[in-house]
Amino acid sequence: MTKEIKENSKTIDRELNDYYQQVEKDVREQTNAYLTGVKQVLETYRTKVQSDYCEMQKVIDDNSSKITAEVKTLTSTQVKTLEAEKENQEMNRISIQSIRDFVQQLTDTGSDIDVMTHSKKLQTKIQELQTSEPVFDTKTTDITFTPGKKMDLVLLFPKIPEPRPLSIKKGSITAKTYRGPFDACFGSLKQETVCYPELMEFQKVTLLETRERQISFYVRRRLWDTQCTDDGCFLVACGIMFLHTARTVCVFSSTGELERELVK
């Protein structure tokens, strides 16, 4: 029975472990398949949104390029006009400086006739230079950029497929156990009277000369069922029968000495 318990204990451990590994394998395969499907949905959605972002960025870049080109054209025209007027003003400055130098020279070295001759011309020229106006439009163009509308529309999360119920195969067990109370599972001892062949020779009664009583106790068995040993030698010396029952049994050793006397 102990052997069966050990064998079945090992069997149940092995079978349950094998079944768990099989369930784990099936669950992982089904779970991996579901996760693969979810990943594909998310990847598809991400690709679409990123494509929309790229398209929006392209529109923004195109408009930005157009605005930049317009601003460059406008500022370039104004810069050219300003540069031309700057050159004109520089020429006027040089002219005024030349007139001042000539007037100074005329004042220092010229005669009264020379002064009278050139005075009127110089005054006229100075008046022309003082009253000259710029030939370009001095008004500047203000450029104001209005930013576009912010992205305030929240994206909707993609629909994720519902997971399917797991398909688990039913396991089987070959290990055995006992039914009912455990006491019924144990074996039992049964006492039986056995006559050994080697004792048959000692069933004959042999009377010895010397007898001595030492220990007395009740004998509930018949004479030929009583067994005593002395160094492997079985001796029954005598027995007084009364109604097929031994009342007194004496046991002697192989040397003839009285060892036991059984009285009933």
TrEMBL record:
What is the superkingdom listed in this entry's lineage?
Answer: Eukaryota
> What is the protein named?
Uncharacterized protein LOC106179208
The root-end lineage is:
Eukaryota, Metazoa, Spiralia, Lophotrochozoa, Brachiopoda
As recorded in Swiss-Prot or TrEMBL, the protein's gene is named LOC106179208
